[in-house]
Amino acid sequence: EAGVTQFPSHSVIEKGQTVTLRCDPISGHDNLYWYRRVMGKEIKFLLHFVKESKQDESGMPNNRFLAERTGGTYSTLKVQPAELEDSGVYFCASSQDLLDEQYFGPGTRLTVT
Amino acid sequence: AQSVTQLGSHVSVSEGALVLLRCNYSSSVPPYLFWYVQYPNQGLQLLLKYTSAATLVKGINGFEAEFKKSETSFHLTKPSAHMSDAAEYFCAVSVYNFNKFYFGSGTKLNVKP
Predict the structure, then answer these.
(1) pLDDT tens for each residue of chain A, 113 residues long
(2) Touching check for A65 and chain B: CB below 8 Å?
(3) DSSP class of residue A84?
(4) Residues in CB range of B106: below 8 A, 6 or more apart
(5) B46 reaches A (C-beta below 8 A)
(6) Percent of residues, chain A, with pLDDT higher than 70
(7) pLDDT confidence bin for B13, thresholds 50/70/90
(8) Are B100 and A104 in contact (CB < 8 Å)?
(9) Does the distance separating the beta carbons of A101 and B99 come in below 8 Å?
């Protein structure tokens, strides 16, 4: 069974540009989560989808970030326009049920210059 | 509010020596506690979890952790380090319905031959 996959693995963009990160959860997992780790600090929760619905987006930094999960399968996280402080590693995780272990992808390393 | 403190961003041990990675948490309600490990270029992998059952939790790869409510701690130990244990370790706390984790800032474990 394939694990959680994320694309791209690395992205380098200039300030003001737009970037879209993609996450493919484990097949059949209704719960999908986005987290971010900035420069060796703690991994912080961004938001949680249950199927295609946003269950909790309390961790989204501001309205430059837009997450979608059309059809309840893969999810995208768009940053527009990107700022320097958006640099970091963005992790995606999925779980089958709410009380299950979260399975993490390898992350996307975003660098904004 | 919930938070996690991992003491020591870098820990170095010799192969065969005891591994002790420290984690203290703050939670206003009974917590669920987790240790995850991240090997280079991989996603976070669950090592073990505490969900209010036995206070001594055994995980994969010979790791275990003990929940101590009086000390608000959940330290990770392994009796004998192996070279393959070199990785970054994250402690996390969750409450209520598992929908989000609060992570510590991580501890990089170096194992010397």
Answers:
(1) 689 999 999 999 999 999 999 999 999 999 999 999 998 789 999 999 999 999 999 999 999 999 999 888 999 999 999 999 999 999 999 998 877 788 999 999 999 99
(2) no
(3) G
(4) A40, A42, A43, B6, B9, B38, B88, B89, B90
(5) yes
(6) 99
(7) very high
(8) no
(9) no
**CA closest to A90 among chain B residues:** B43
B103 interfacial to chain A (CB closer than 8 Å): yes
DSSP E strands: which ranges in B1-113?
3-7, 10-14, 19-26, 32-38, 44-50, 56-58, 64-68, 73-78, 87-94, 102-103, 107-112
* Chain A residues 21-60 within an 8 A CB cutoff of chain B: 31, 33, 35, 40-45, 48, 55-56, 59
List the single residue in B with minimal CA-CA distance to A100. B98
Distance CA B104, CA B61 (A): 21
Token duo for residue B54: 């036995």
